[in-house]
Specification:
heterodimer, A: mainly alpha, globular, B: Alpha-Beta Plaits, 51% helix, 17% strand
């Protein structure tokens, strides 16, 4: 419940603070979002299974975002940015879906 | 495939498991708590995710509106320039009318002036710098209704060549003055295609093209139809171009833009 409130608070803060992303970083924001989503779903699942750990969560969150952005950045430099972002999204997407399915099973027992 | 299987099998960061195992090992005597452990870091992570999300959305909206604003601004500038061109054209034509009026007034005073005025009007009529009216003929050309369905789609639309042939044919048939869609064709009028638009006197025209000619209304249309212009039109008609040639009792042709000749000087000879 409280994490969900955190999400809402984050969205509202983003809307009102009017943070502007530098133009050079803009292509990496969507990838960063997917990576962050993956870390968050992993964290929620860990909470459900009782093995949540602050340090692991923070490290995985930051590392996920940075590595995903780095991969896409490298891809851009090599001219295959679109393909590499597809790869990142596929892998993270699968993880998100599987974690979400596990969370669903924990919540609804189904 | 094994990579994908791996992703499917271990969606959770393995570190969670490892850290939990070491923790269980560390406080073995305590009962392992299965109670979900919430923490500020998860809330913070969610906060960061929400922030990222809304920033991305706001950014997207922002760039979209910037692009459309830029396009709008460009369109605005184009419209402004067009209006200015129109205003200037209006000013030119009103000044020309004023000049003509002043000339008239000056020349009307004497008999010699009267004669001069008549010959001047004649010359202006044939040079195309004065509006003229009289009997004549009209040729209306239009693209084929469905150019893409014809055999040769590139010939099923009216090209500059078609208009050039028609104008030539009308001159041959004895036309004294010609206009295309209210653009007077003078001795300095180019008829040319640019970007699929036909320009006459540098003004873009759109189909249908109405070519008006002044001449002997009894012979102009028939001479045109029997001459090279008519031949050309008939072959163009086979490609899908729609055209009509009509006798006109009275047509009015506008004045062309004033011709200022800067380099050519009259040498006085007639031949």
């Amino acid at each position: 419940m409280i994490p969900a409130l955190g999400l809402v608070a984050g969205i509202i803060a983003g809307l009102f603070l009017d943070v502007s992303v530098p133009l050079d970083l803009q292509p990496y924001v969507p990838i960063a979002i997917v990576a962050a989503l993956d870390a968050v779903f992993g964290g929620i699942r860990a909470v459900m299974e009782g093995i949540f750990d602050d340090k692991v969560f923070v490290v995985s969150f930051i590392a996920n975002v940075l590595i995903a952005a780095l991969i896409v950045y490298l891809g851009d430099q090599l001219g295959v940015g679109a393909q590499l972002s597809t790869a990142v999204i596929v892998v993270l997407g699968i993880r998100i879906f599987t974690n979400a399915a596990t969370i669903r099973r924990h919540i609804f027992r189904a | 495939m094994s990579l994908l299987n791996n992703v499917f099998a271990n969606p959770l960061d393995p570190d969670y498991e490892r850290v939990a195992a070491t923790r269980r090992g560390a406080d073995e005597d305590e009962a392992p708590s299965r109670k979900p452990r919430m923490s500020a870091s998860l809330v913070l992570g969610m906060l960061a995710l929400g922030l990222l999300l809304s920033v991305a959305i706001v950014q997207k909206e922002g760039t979209a509106s910037v692009a459309s604003a830029e396009r709008e601004g460009l369109a605005e500038r184009i419209r402004g320039q067009e209006q200015q061109t129109e205003r200037l054209q209006d000013a030119v034509s009103s000044l020309q009318a004023e000049i003509a009026e002043l000339e008239d007034r000056q020349l009307q005073s004497s008999a010699r002036g009267q004669r001069l005025r008549e010959s001047l009007q004649n010359l202006q009529g044939s040079a195309g710098t004065a509006a003229v009216a009289g009997p004549g003929a009209s040729v209306v050309l239009d693209d084929a209704e469905h150019p893409e369905e014809t055999e040769k789609p590139e010939y099923a639309v009216v090209l500059d060549v078609d208009l050039q042939r028609v104008v030539n044919g009308l001159w041959i048939a004895g036309a004294e003055a010609i206009s295309i869609n209210d653009q007077r064709v003078t001795s300095l009028s180019p008829i040319r295609m640019a970007n699929n638009v036909i320009n006459v006197n540098g003004r873009p025209l759109s189909p249908p093209y109405e070519v008006l000619a002044i001449g002997d209304s009894r012979t102009l249309a028939s001479d045109f139809s029997e001459g090279p212009g008519g031949d050309y039109l008939r072959s163009a008609g086979k490609d899908g171009i729609r055209y009509t040639v009509r006798v006109e009792e009275s047509v009015r042709l506008p004045a062309g833009s004033s011709m200022s000749i800067s380099y050519a000087t009259a040498t006085g000879g007639v031949s």
